[in-house]
TrEMBL record:
Its main location: membrane. Keywords: Coiled coil, Membrane, Mitochondrion, Transmembrane, Transmembrane helix. This is Coiled-coil domain-containing protein 90B, mitochondrial. Pfam families: CCDC90-like. The gene is CCDC90B. It comes from Goodea atripinnis.
Length: 189
């Protein structure tokens, strides 16, 4: 896998980090799957434990939901503000570069009468510098967009994990209630 990633253009260290991360994620997922598999006796013990902790879980869920969503909202607001500031800075910088370049070009045009060939070289250098700066600005903009996309994706991942956790807790609650109901039903029957 490392060799394939290296062939795709990544450095060896980056490829090894990616493979290491994949191994860690796979191991963690397998551990989660094995934790969820239990025998009937373990299941009965787990049902008893769930019953004893049900109230605390409900309280924790309410507290967690309020605090996590509040934190996510505040972080999202901060990120939006930072993004707007970065976009404004980028616009200002690009306008400065454009203004400087236009000024340089106009100055060079005014001196063309004496040294036409030398000024033509300077004009071409200024133009290539402008394009390099523009390319650098575009690269910076792409990196900023990538960072924003990564942060948005991580927020989505956190939201999805919270959703899955909530669904898991709800499912556990439903199964617990069902088990209690079946126990009471069997007891009265």
């Amino acid at each position: 896998m490392v060799l394939e990633l290296e062939k795709s253009g990544l450095e060896k260290r980056q490829a090894e980090l990616i493979v290491s991360a994949l191994v860690t994620l796979t191991t963690a997922n397998m551990d989660i799957v094995y934790k969820d598999m239990v025998t009937k006796s373990h299941q009965e013990i787990a049902v008893q434990q769930i019953m004893s902790h049900l109230d605390s879980i409900r309280k924790d869920m309410v507290i967690l939901e309020k605090s996590e969503f509040a934190n996510l909202r505040s972080e999202n607001t901060k990120m939006k503000r930072e993004l707007e500031q970065l976009q404004n800075r980028l616009k200002e910088e690009s306008e400065k570069v454009r203004a400087e370049t236009k000024l340089d070009i106009n100055l060079e045009r005014s001196r063309i009468s004496d040294m036409f060939t030398d000024q033509e070289k300077k004009l071409m250098e200024a133009t290539s510098e402008f394009y390099h700066k523009k390319a650098d600005l575009e690269n910076d903009n792409m990196e900023i967009n990538k960072k924003i996309d990564l942060q948005v994706a991580s927020l989505k991942t956190v939201l999805e994990s919270l959703k899955l956790e909530t669904i898991r807790y709800l499912a556990a609650t439903v199964f617990s209630c069902l088990a209690i109901f079946l126990g009471v039903y069997r007891f009265w029957r």
